[in-house]
């Protein structure tokens, strides 16, 4: 149902008419907007108050509001105001997601609000004199218990449109409706793609034109393709001759760490007029959670061993608390993944003129994000990451062997460090950093250890965090499985989506568990990779990342996943590259 809210400053005067000015319990600061959370006792429900300014003056704007969760994107409503808009968060889609989030968390032995879902808002100002729009995309996490219990809470969002790049708009008079055919497949253990639009767009959903007759601009979700499964976030790769020439003793990956309160899952979006931006959190953790490895249910995994065996086939065994992979000669990947719903969302801009006629605009906003965790990902207040092995026929091999080259991601630009490791005939280990930024390595009689947390600190992404190639991951699924490509093409309304795959910013790299700069919260891997080499052997270790420049507020930085590539006879890509 369409909701239209036009509010005056009087509401704020009434709300904040308390003995002293309230202090926010939580703040999110960026260059374009600020979000403040207030616990206001005079209210009986949570509300969102949005203010928009240009040159310090209140301006008219529209809000296209969506709820993320339950594996879908739901349209909440469209709102219009001049300088100020007031929105109740007790609407049906938000309440439904809050209820389901709480239900899943409690059923898995967690506090009801250990994970906060988010609402997604596209907020647009239209300047009729220049025929330009300015759009800000914001995700706002909320405690689901606030919604269920009608907690007195104000979330105040302030937007400075001066910080947003204007875009000239053109009205398209012809438009074909989007198909939402659902053609499920099951590539690499993933269920999807499926149509993740949670509800149909309301016909003529735009807010009423403003009295001056300038018309309004707003955004509708054109299509959404969802995948359920384990998205790789950290991996170790080895070359085809690595086992017999150097690491015959094996690889050991120790799983540990924690997510700190306030960190979360972040996505990316390309909003017209701006470059690829980090958005989020689309999910936020409300408490510190330890990271455990999981296997086959809730079996705890402390260490993952990969050993070479002279066998025609690989095998796997589990003995508490260790998981053992036995592989034969050849290349491969060991990776850790997080179970969730990954969504590709495309929004299209629309215009309603002063006469009430609605037209599509040739502008799209694309987003790639993990919108919810699958049941069991957090169990008894523990975040589980799931190990996987890929011996040449899995998704990691396809990404690094075919997808990454197609997107020009196999180059020296994405190699951040090299280390040379050797073991002499007496069994002593030696190592040397081949770049000035070499990470700390610990070598003992049992092998050489790479603390992942130290590696990420040495690479010095700001903020500290791990990023995931979820966009590239989905691109790999699309290219590897024609049925996946066909399904997404059907969901997005035609093959033009696939044709634009290589240039689509929505299929860029999405941040995972990357907190806003300036925050003390982060996702921390206290994880070791141990290489056990043969006597008299040596190997090169390259640290691989696919960085993406992004802006979060006033901070410009980059995020990249952690990948370790082991080669025996020569460095990865054949030479030493040191990029910082």
Polypeptide structure, described:
13% of the residues lie in helices and 46% in strands. The protein is built from nine helices and 39 strands. The chain has a 17-stranded mixed beta sheet that branches. Helix 5 packs across helix 7 and helix 7 (470-480) packs across helix 8. The protein is mainly beta and 580 residues long. The protein is elongated.
N- to C-terminal distance:
51 Å
Which ranges are low-confidence, i.e. pLDDT below 50, for 5 or more consecutive residues? 1-19, 174-183, 202-206, 454-468, 497-524, 546-553, 555-561
Helix content: 10-25%
Judged by helices, strands and strand pairing, the structural class is mainly beta
Main sheet: strands, sense, barrel: 17 strands, mixed
What is the averaged pLDDT score? 75
Q: How many individual β-strands?
A: 39
The total of helices stands at 9
User: Which range does the strand content fall in?
Assistant: over 45%
Shape descriptor: elongated
What is the CA-atom radius of gyration, in angstroms?
Answer: 25 Å
């Amino acid at each position: 149902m369409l909701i239209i809210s036009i509010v005056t400053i009087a509401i704020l005067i009434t709300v904040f008419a308390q003995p002293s000015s309230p202090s926010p319990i939580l703040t999110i600061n960026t260059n374009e907007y600020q979000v403040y959370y207030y616990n206001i006792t005079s209210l009986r429900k949570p509300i969102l108050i949005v203010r928009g300014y240009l040159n310090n003056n209140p301006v008219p704007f529209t809000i296209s509001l969506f709820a993320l969760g339950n594996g879908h994107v739901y349209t909440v409503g469209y709102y219009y105001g001049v300088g100020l808009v007031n929105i109740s968060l007790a609407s049906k889609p938000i309440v439904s997601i809050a209820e389901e989030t709480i239900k899943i968390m409690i059923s898995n032995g967690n506090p009801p609000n250990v994970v906060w879902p988010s609402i997604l808002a596209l907020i647009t100002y239209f300047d009729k004199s220049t025929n330009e729009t300015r759009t800000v995309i914001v995700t706002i996490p909320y405690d689901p218990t606030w919604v269920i219990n009608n907690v007195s809470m104000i979330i105040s969002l302030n937007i400075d449109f001066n910080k947003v790049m204007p875009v000239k708009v053109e009205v398209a008079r012809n438009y074909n409706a989007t198909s939402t055919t659902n053609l499920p497949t099951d590539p690499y253990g993933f269920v999807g793609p499926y149509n993740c639009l949670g509800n149909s767009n309301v016909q003529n959903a735009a807010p009423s034109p403003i009295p001056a007759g300038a018309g309004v601009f707003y955004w509708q979700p054109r299509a959404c393709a969802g995948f359920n499964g384990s998205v790789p976030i950290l991996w170790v790769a080895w070359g085809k001759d690595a086992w017999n020439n150097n690491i015959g003793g094996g690889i050991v990956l120790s799983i540990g760490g924690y997510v700190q309160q306030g960190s979360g899952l972040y996505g990316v979006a390309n909003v017209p007029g701006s470059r690829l931006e980090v958005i989020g959190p689309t999910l936020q953790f409300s408490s510190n959670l330890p990271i455990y490895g999981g296997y086959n249910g809730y079996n705890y995994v402390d260490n993952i061993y990969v050993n070479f065996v002279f066998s025609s086939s690989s095998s796997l065994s589990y003995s508490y608390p260790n998981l053992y992979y036995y592989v034969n000669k050849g290349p491969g990947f060991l990776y850790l993944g997080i179970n969730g719903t990954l969504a590709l969302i495309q929004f299209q801009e629309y215009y309603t003129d002063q006469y009430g006629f609605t037209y599509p605009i040739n502008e799209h906003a694309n987003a790639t994000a993990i919108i919810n965790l699958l049941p069991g990902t957090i169990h008894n207040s523990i975040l589980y990451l799931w190990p996987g092995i890929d011996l040449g026929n899995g998704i990691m091999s396809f990404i690094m062997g075919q997808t990454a080259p197609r997107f020009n991601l196999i180059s020296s630009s994405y190699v951040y460090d090299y280390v040379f490791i050797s073991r002499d005939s007496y069994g002593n280990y030696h190592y040397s950093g081949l770049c000035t930024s070499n990470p700390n390595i610990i070598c003992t009689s049992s092998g050489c250890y790479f603390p992942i947390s130290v590696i990420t600190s040495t690479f010095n992404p700001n903020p500290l965090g791990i990023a995931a190639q979820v966009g590239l991951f989905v691109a790999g699924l699309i290219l590897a499985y024609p049925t996946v490509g066909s399904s997404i093409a059907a969901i997005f309304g035609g093959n033009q989506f696939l044709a634009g795959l290589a240039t689509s910013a929505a299929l860029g790299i999405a941040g995972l568990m990357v907190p806003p700069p300036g925050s003390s919260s982060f996702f921390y891997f206290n994880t070791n990779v141990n290489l056990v080499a043969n006597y008299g052997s040596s190997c090169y270790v390259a640290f691989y990342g696919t960085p993406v420049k992004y802006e979060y507020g006033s901070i410009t930085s980059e995020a990249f996943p952690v990948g370790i590539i082991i080669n025996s006879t020569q460095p990865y890509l054949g030479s030493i590259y040191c990029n910082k």
